Amino acid sequence: MQNTISRRDFLKAGGAAVGAAALGSFVPPQVARAARDLDILDPNGDGYIPTMCEMCVWRCGLLAKVKDGRVVKLEGNPDNPHSTGRLCARGQSGLMNTYDPDRVLTPLIRVGQRGEGKFRRASWPEALDLVTQNMSKIKQQYGAEAMLFSSTHNLSQVQFENFLNGFGSPNYGTQRSLCFNAMIVSNLMTYGMQEPNRTYDGIKYILLTGRNLTEAISTSETRALIDSISAGAKLVYLDPRFTKTASKADEWLCIKPGTDLAFHLALINVIVNANLYDTYFVDTYTTGFDKLAAAVASYTPEWAAPLTGIDARTIERIAREFAGAAPYALAHNGWRTSNFLNSFDTERAIAILNALVGNWGVMMHPAGAEGAGLGTIPQPAYPRITALRLDGVPWKFPFVPLSLGIFQQMRDAILDGTPYQAKGWFISRQNPVQSLPDRQKTLQAFGKLDFIVTVDLIMNDTSWYADVVLPEASYLERYDPLNVIGEQAWVRQPVIEPQGMGQSALWIYKELGTRLGLGDYFQYKDEEDYLRQQLAPSGVSLEQARLKGYAELPGSGPANEMTWGTASGKVEIYSSTLAQGGFDPIPQWKAPAEPGPGEFYLLTGKVGQHTQMGTQNNKLLHKYEDEPRLWMHPDAAGKLGLKDRDLVQVTSPVGTLKVALQVTPAIRPDCVYMTPGFGHQSKGLRTAYGVGASDSQLHVTYVDPVSGSQALSQTFVTVGKA
Ligand code: SF4
Predict the structure, then answer these.
(1) Contact by Cβ (8 Å): 404, 389
(2) Which range of residues forms the domain containing residue 230?
(3) Is 87 in the pocket of ligand 1 (CB under 6 A)?
(4) Angle value at C-alpha 401, between 399 and 405, nearest 5 degrees
């Protein structure tokens, strides 16, 4: 990358003063002064400021220790239900994302070819005007629908959605179809809600299917799991790899990939046939049990054993133990589960298993609505949109929520040009070059677009290909909309002044919206005004909330837990909605694809020190890890004449790459594993560039026809010496 401005250059150039003056009164809050005024900081400007972590989506409350205008330490806020006083390694290292020497500190405009990494620095007004001109031109010539939008799940997403809805485009991609669409759609069909809450209070038996909770960390839930194990709960864990969670389990079942569905169908078979289910709950609160009994009659443990690689007696015993621990038993519905085209049915089987043991109201509870109890910001109705969505939702995928979408389908539609040709892509805090399967396709799709704009902190692989990069302030430098947990609204507030010209998402979308003639959708003066409007119903001032880190919201009184948002108002074992859509109303066995001779299942999965592909440039996290290698079982390596640390070539139907080998017995011989999020292309990431390889080069695009989930483990690869 050329000409990316460093903080020192920036300060020399006096860029902050230029940017602020040009934009009038909407300037960043004077953090230190405001905190001193509130007595959060001492007269020297030192002390602890409560705010929220953003190193993953869990939003743990933290206390930022500030000294001499810099954050020097991050600690868990003991009052916060998500951190309960603890931060994971990523959370503790979060200050390094803010102080990353590779931060983009000024708007950038591309001057070379896409992917060449040549940009020039720009002022905010110039960059915003350029984005406005390009978006307006696309809208005028091709319609608002030719402009695509995508973002990660984050607190400012609500204003990103406001921005794209006001603009009038139906095309919105999130990363969820690459993660947990199958789980969400399954819950909607079964419970009528996207994700019920889980609790571990008093739990006796936990069944985890591909939910590697000690590495895919959500601080409070991971802690609850570990505490439950210490208190004597039994953990049964299914995974083709021996992960850190497997090491904590009472039983690790090294299941064959793609067969989790068979395992759960067999559990249901045993529980139904042996009358081990909760008859009161099933009779009172569910529909379709009689049809379930007939549908699973042939799915015996003996049937499932050769499919799963788990012997029939073990399956039978686990079914009986699980039902025996009810209602203090939980089959965790995972997030990505098995990552095959049958994953939706797996998720449905897990949801039904929980219903059979009557754990609702004990281990599972209704989820509260996001943002419930907060004041809303006034705005007009959105323009009516008649264009079809490029991702096929809902016209090809009727059950996928519009707010989730199918990201990989949207990308493929850019390439196909059907049902119309996309022309521009607005990408916020997202990295589709790394996250979408088949990186080559994503880069080809970029080639079909007239304009790409990104909002990000660093020059990630996607920004590397952008025409304009807009620098966001880090989570330690900005406000975001409030985060509701139960009956508390938690505050993310700036703890230091923004570095360079970084700005909050609330600011960026308002500025762009105003330039595009959409100002009525952004009726807040600044970030603090936005939060004050949100806090209005609580009667708590922003100053009080900032001091404590949260505001108490008016209680809504005890909720009736025994209500579900399904068509019948009950837990739908048999889904008439699915039946009407032409899909199996009760999960049925669907054999997954299998690798051919000489091929391996390509598995991916999280490690505790990284969040997808967003943290690899963090120097603190990088410091404590080896370069990620391809896991392979010793038997498989021996057959191929490979040894530990050999450089190997991995080839799939869509790509090939080279990576070092890690020979380990902690994986099935028919699988290999890669840690995702490495192999960055952007030379603007000086820590992450050149480290490891990217699984996105290998993954084939597969879309589950019900939920739109990407079947990530259904890619098969060959491996040989490089
Ligand atoms: S789980 Fe870790 S990374 Fe995620 S919000 Fe909590 S501390 Fe931050």
Answers:
(1) no
(2) 196-366
(3) yes
(4) 105
Q: Are residues 270 and 385 in the same domain?
A: no
User: With contact defined as beta carbons under 8 Å apart, do 368 and 484 qualify?
Assistant: yes
Q: Does the residue 465 lie in any domain?
A: yes
Which of 336, 366, 396 is the C-terminal boundary of a domain? 366
Whether residue 200 is found in the same domain as residue 341: yes
Ligand 1 centroid, distance to 354 Cα (angstroms)? 28
User: From CA 530, how far away is CA 517, in angstroms rounded?
Assistant: 20
Give the Å distance between the CA of 217 and the centre of ligand 1: 7
Q: Which of 52, 56, 607, 610 to mutate to test the pocket of ligand 1 (most atoms within 8 A of CB)?
A: 56
Same domain assignment for residues 268 and 351: yes
pLDDT tens sequence across 323-368? 999 999 999 987 766 689 999 999 999 999 999 999 999 999 998 7
- Asked whether residue 645 falls in the same domain as residue 685, the answer is yes
Q: Is 219 in the pocket of ligand 1 (CB under 6 A)?
A: yes
The enclosing domain of 220 has a CATH number of: 3.40.228.10
Q: Which atom of ligand 1 is nearest to the CA of 59?
A: 5
Residue 455 Cβ inside 6 Å of ligand 1? The answer reads no
Residues of the chain with pLDDT under 50: 1-28
Residues 278 and 134 reside in one and the same domain: no
Q: Could you tell me if 632 and 663 are in contact, meaning their C-beta atoms sit under 8 angstroms apart? A: yes
| pLDDT tens for each residue of 524-574 | 999 999 999 999 999 999 999 999 999 999 876 667 889 999 999 999 999
459 lines ligand 1 (CB under 6 A): no
- Cβ of 59 below 6 Å from ligand 1: yes
DSSP secondary structure code for residue 176 in this structure: G
Decide whether any atom of ligand 1 lies within 6 Å of the 90 Cβ.
Answer: yes
Closest Cα partner for 546 from 40, 130, 32? 40
| Contact 217 CB / ligand 1 (< 6 Å) | yes
Which CATH number does the domain housing residue 654 bear? 2.40.40.20
Question: Is the shortest distance between the CB of 213 and ligand 1 below 6 Å?
Answer: no
> In ligand 1, which atom is closest to the CA atom of 56?
4
Same domain, 385 and 451: yes
393 and 357 co-located in one domain: no
Of the candidates 641, 626, 633, the residue with the CA atom closest to the CA atom of residue 666: 633
Take residue 181 and report the two structure tokens written for it: 């669409």
Average model confidence (pLDDT) for the chain? Answer: 92
In a domain, 354, yes or no: yes
